[in-house]
Amino acid sequence: MFKQFISTLLLLIATQSVGLAQIDTVKSKLEIEKLGDQIYLFVQQTNIANPSSIVFVSSELSVVIDPGFEQMQSVIRDSIRALGGEEIEFVMATHFHTDHAQAIGGYLGNTTILLSSAQSKNSTETELTNALSSEETYVLKLTNEELQVHSMPQEAGHTGADAIFYFKRANVLVVGDYLFQDMYPIIDIEGKGSFDGYFKNVNYILNLADESTKIIPGHTSFKDPALKYLSKKSYLDYLSRLENSIELIKALKEQGLSAEDAIKKGLPDEFKDFNESPKYVSQDRWIRFIYNQL
Questions:
Q1: pTM of the predicted protein model
Q2: Minimal CA–CA distance to 114: which of 60, 174, 163, 50?
Q3: 236 pLDDT exceeds 90?
Q4: Are 291 and 262 in contact (CB under 8 A)?
């Protein structure tokens, strides 16, 4: 059964991984920001991606959400120890793209891997997973903190196997790639994601947040200096811009323009910053993606 679970989990990581080059550890670093009592954001600034890892640190145990790249784990463990944390007892992932979950394989056997229902539906290894229905929230008690593991109402969203995490006391909401700060998002259709499901799940996220919630993106902005998290208002502003871009692209298609003609025409300058390098999704790619979804 244990081998079956490992095979299932590694298959998820393999099949939902984005193609990435090799990390240059010399050019990589870990940026750390405290989010609340015992909760830290570790941004893995590498030569190919900047995924967010969220870490709960205590003298009893430590928790890592989105461990990210294998090559970054030694510095993550060293940083947890430097912050006074004990060994990592729980590891979780918002989804299984390589930049968020590649390192999970290295924790199997020594650490509890906690999954949402969409992530664990193919596994019956109950000692390692907690199967959650889309209408339920699993609560993990952590010293003075309560960590809620939320299954998404739409199984097909960013990918076909997503989860979000809420630290209740600190009011920190970890949303993974339902937020690419200052960038067009990736919606992984090949990884069983869904355009409609993505935005329906975004509404679920918004209902969890209040005006004081710190919303943690899967990828922070590449701008310098960059905020490491957004308020609900800032997230709504970002979503409004995305919705406006979609409506403009929809209008171009309704005018009879082909995708290539729409790409040549482009979007207004108000979206210029979303297309600035470095980025994950160019304006051309976003227009073509929306055309395909429409």
A1: 0.91
A2: 163
A3: yes
A4: yes
